[in-house]
Amino acid sequence: MNALILMLSPLIPLLLACFAYRLQSRWWLFAAALPALYLGLMGEQGSAITLPWLMLGMHFSLDSTAQQFLLFGAMIWMLASLYIPGRDLLPGASGYRKQSFLLAMTGNLLLIIAADMLTFYVGFALMGLSAYGLIWGPSQRARKAARVYLVFTLIGELALFSALLLLLVNSQSLLFAELHTESLPQAAVALLLLGFGIKVALPGLHLWLPGAYTLAPIFGVALLSGPMMKAGLLGWLRFLPLGEPLDPLWGNLLLLLGVAGVVLGMLVGMFQRDPRSVLAYSSISKMGLFSALIGFTLNHPGMVAGLLPVIVLLALHHLMVKPMLFMGLDLWQKGAAAHWLLPALTLLSLSLMAFPMTGGGAVKNLMSVALNDNLAWLLFLGGMAATLLMGRFLWLLWNSKQSAEYDRLTLSAWLVVLPLAVWAPFAWDGMSVKGSALLPLLSAAVLLLIGQLLRRRFDLLQQPMFTQGNPMSWRIPTLAGERVKAESGWQRVKRLRQRHLQGLVRWPVMGLRDTAVWWLMLMLLLALALRN
Amino acid sequence: MAMSVWLPVAILLSSFIPGVLIFFQPEERRRLRTWLNLLGALIKLLLVGMLIWGVFHEQVFESRWTMAPGLEFVLHADALSVLFVSLSTLLWLVTTIYAIGYLEQTPHRSRFFGFFSLCVTATVGLALAGNLFTFVVFYELLTLATYPLIAHKGSPEALRGARIYLRYTLFGGLLLMIGAVWLHTLTGGVEFVEGGILQYANLDQSTLRWIFLLLIVGLGVKAALVPLHGWLPQAMVAPAPVSALLHAVAVVKAGAFGIVRVIYDVYGVEFAAELGVLTLLGAVAAITIIYGSLKALSQDHLKKRLAYSTVSQVSYIVLGTAIVGPLATIGGLVHLVHQGVMKITLFFAAGNYAEALGIHRVSEMDGVGRRMPGTTLAFTIGALGMIGIPPVAGFISKWYLGLGAVEAGAAAWVLPVLIASSLLNAAYFLPILYRAWFKSQSAPWPADKTAGCVRELPDALLWPPLTTAAMALLIGLFAAAPYSPLEWAELIAGREYRQ
Questions:
Q1: Of A84, A280, B35, B156, which is most buried by a Cβ count within 10 Å?
Q2: Looking at the domain assignment, is residue B94 inside a domain?
Q3: Are A40 and A67 in contact (CB under 8 A)?
Q4: pLDDT of residue B307
């Protein structure tokens, strides 16, 4: 059963991608990540499946790292799907957002559950190339950003391709489990550092990042900064011979580049005027910290057992928090309630700064312990960079313009995921995050979203305008009598609300107050879950 | 007669007889001509199916006639022939359907389809040739059968392209013939044997090197090795189905196939490496790969860009042959099939653009994806495959070529060539895809023939590219499945490196 779901988790988004031109509701995209979420929460570790006839033989398996990446990745994919603007869901919408989204998701999930190098590579390539469509925009600058991204991604793919060939001939097996670490070709290590270094934006290889992060639509940035960027990190964890002696050159190089990333990200980020750019450089700074930690781990094979799970945890925390910051920023700029958002964004920022009582703080403590008092200066430097950058971000946020309208659903969904993003590391039980500990929280979140939807629909059904038509049909005659076909149910709801319901008595739709109540309940649940 | 004797002959006749009959049909008997064509193609497909099964189970298929003392005409099916025969047969069927749709309402169709069938007969004949003499016969026949197809339109431009083609290939054919006769006089008949025969012949090594040079230059003309490639971009004046067949199956592939035959089954790859001729060939292949891609980069004419892309891609096969080792062999052989399926898709699509909207140039393709989604989807799959993006077939070829290079210790120069080629392929294919899908139409279509039609094209034009694109995707996605081209290439490599 688990093996079947393991196979389905990349297959479902792939199949949906084939029919994406017909999907007009974002809930399809939302649902595509459900098998992955299930695996993250309740999948049995160690379940595996081999498909010998697929390409050159594909192997999927679910280990603890994969499970955690799936859990947190799936949540961000689902949340981001709600942020896709309605016009991008229309048939014939340019940019092919739905296809890109689903294909990138396929690739991302595939590489997480990959148990062999080729499967990982296929997923990585699929994800990297499809993300082009998530960045592309009709403006000159967005087109250029997408092009730069694509060139870097292609170079990364080819470096990885060559590294794979060298590794395969060296160890005569594609499986990660059988990867030989002795007599590893030096060129392969260099190519791995290059190939994944582009994805994690090592200084010098980061040139694609600022453009992509500032010009892509918000759901694209959320995905790039979260699940996709961490895929590069996962690549290092899977491919590099951690725990085996290696020429110290590579560890030192990575450490050096990482520290350079932390410092440069901080220095350049502080001078940005756009809060999004600040977040972008903060990503470079943060990923520099990761790279440095991996470099350190490469040079200290004896400490791998303690360090690796904490690095994963830190990555997962960042995987959640950074997209949340981007999406929160978008909500803010679209004018969602300021008195709620500012504290929430501050909370997220604090967590990124590793403030006590936040998930980030908890992970940092774990990290200090695992590092055994080594690299204290690095953690200090990283913390300082994060603090400065987040301070700058909040300051810019406070002074930035707010405009137009936001989608209430995106706000509620964002608020639901918030406590998870900030406090999920508390569900850590020594080796991994217990997905089951987050289960009550998530089911509550799902209930909340369903409630939100039902109330909207219910709300609509009460309107006389609606009951004149066939209430079972979503093809509602409008005032002028024309039938609107090109819209999704969702957009119809929105349009009807805007056009016809204005001035009529508004039913109490779940608003911020309700969300707040839910939020408090979730906190309680979280507390309960953690006590167990 | 036993099946093992008549099957190779029947496979040849299944396209030869319809071809001859079609010559004598008056122009307006369209239905009969179509029936003859399709019947021939389907019978051939059936026969080839039997052949595949037989060869897989190590049955021997051979027909032999003595033309003169010491000169034998031999048809013989081994695993390598089967690879090429099945590719030709399958793509012939698809191309025939496409050509029927494409040439609707144009003059001289009987002449066209007659030569078209002869062209395939010659291709299959040289795939089944059991010795060098038979190979040369079919090789020359192919040259002659293709000339009228390239010149088909009859315009001064077409005649010029065809004349250039004829000059190049007759010159190549002459060199090949000299080499073959020379070898024949030394050995008294050169049979194709898996693993090669010349290493046992005890001949002067420098003589063998000279003969190798003659044979490879002769074959290299058709395989479009730089600097013998000049005819190929000129031959793109031919109608789209001819270009498709020319680039994917018939002429270019015949050259590449010949090189594979000479190295593996005449010289033997290890012996050829001993002679030191493979290094030179590898260098030529590498230069051709890079040069073709560089030239493709600057072509605005779509078919010319595709033609230079062929120059580059066919040399992957030669490169795989020039590297000693089973993995590189697999890469080269499987690319024989993969390149064919992908390139035929691209040419079908190019033909469709020209046919429906009058688009001949890349710069006219803005927004064509919205207007012709089916064709553009097929083109996209083909192009991604050419770049070598998984899971399309081209990735598998690139993977095995790279692997073979690493295994043979040639990674230091082969991997950079493969990477540069992939980047160049991306540089000339991705802008096309970008124009087609992401840009919006910027100028009226040059000649819109399908304005007001509900569907983008008639079935006979739309389905062939979609079919071959699906094939390109599936043979990559299920590369490890039984009877896939990859499995077959592994079978051949296993038999070539048996001893």
A1: A280
A2: no
A3: yes
A4: 95
Backbone angles phi, psi at A216, to 5 degrees: -75, 155
A442, part of any domain: no
Query: Would an 8 Å CB–CB cutoff place A51 in contact with chain B?
Result: no
User: What HEC string does B270-312 produce?
Assistant: HHHHHHCHHHHHHHHHHHHHHHHHHHHHCCCEHHHHHHHHHHH
What is the pLDDT, as a whole number, of residue A500? 42
- How far apart are the CA of A212 and the nearest CA of chain B, in angstroms? 17
A158/B407 CB distance under 8 A: no
Choose, out of A161, A168, A170, the residue to mutate when testing the contact with B (most B CBs < 10 Å). A161
The C-alpha atoms of residue A354 and residue A460 are separated, in whole angstroms, by 44
Q: Are residues A227 and A256 in the same domain?
A: no
Cβ pair B437:A96 closer than 8 A: yes
Q: Any chain B CB within 8 A of the CB of A162?
A: yes
pLDDT digits (tens, 9 = 90+) for A445-454: 666 667 666 6
Cβ burial, residue B221 (10 Å; 0-12/13-18/19+):
buried
Look at residues B141, B109, B194, B180 and name the one whose alpha carbon lies nearest to residue B12: B141
A56 in contact with chain B, both atoms CB, cutoff 8 A: yes
What mean pLDDT is predicted for residues A191-195? 95
In 3D space, the residue among B373, B344, B372, B369 whose CA is nearest the CA of residue B472 turns out to be B344
CA distance A331 to A404: 10
- Could you tell me the two tokens for A67? 């499970």
B321 in a structural domain: no
Q: What is the pLDDT of residues A24-40, one digit of tens each?
A: 888 899 999 999 999 98
pLDDT digits 0-9 by tens, B349-378: 999 999 999 999 999 999 999 889 999 999
Inter-chain touch B426–A155, beta carbons under 8 Å: no
Burial A373-404 (b: 16+ CB within 10 A, else e): eebeebbebbbebbbbbbebbbebbeeeeeee
User: Would residue B161 count as lying in a domain?
Assistant: no
Asked if A169 lies within 8 A of B403 by C-beta distance, the reply is yes
Closest CB from A122, A154, A165 relative to B406: A165
Residues of A in Cβ contact (< 8 Å) with B398: 161
Task: Clarify whether residues A36 and A147 are in a common domain.
Answer: yes
Chosen from B338, B377, B399 to mutate, greatest number of chain A CBs within 10 A: B399
The pLDDT tens digits for A398-433 are 877 777 667 777 887 888 888 888 888 887 777 677
Which residue in chain A has the smallest CA separation from B473?
A55
Number of domains chain B is built from: 1
- Interval A174-200 mean pLDDT: 89
Angle, nearest 10°, between helix axes A186-199 and A229-239? 160
Inform me whether the pLDDT recorded for A475 exceeds 50. no
Q: Which domain holds residue A13?
A: 1-241
User: Could you tell me the two tokens for A494?
Assistant: 């929105």
Domain span at B429: 336-499
User: Tokens for A410?
Assistant: 């995106």
A369, A400, A434 — which closes off a domain? A434
- Collapsing DSSP states into helix, strand and coil, what is residue A327? helix
CB B392 within 8 Å of CB B381:
yes
Q: What is the mean pLDDT of chain A?
A: 83
Tell me what ipTM this predicted complex has. 0.93
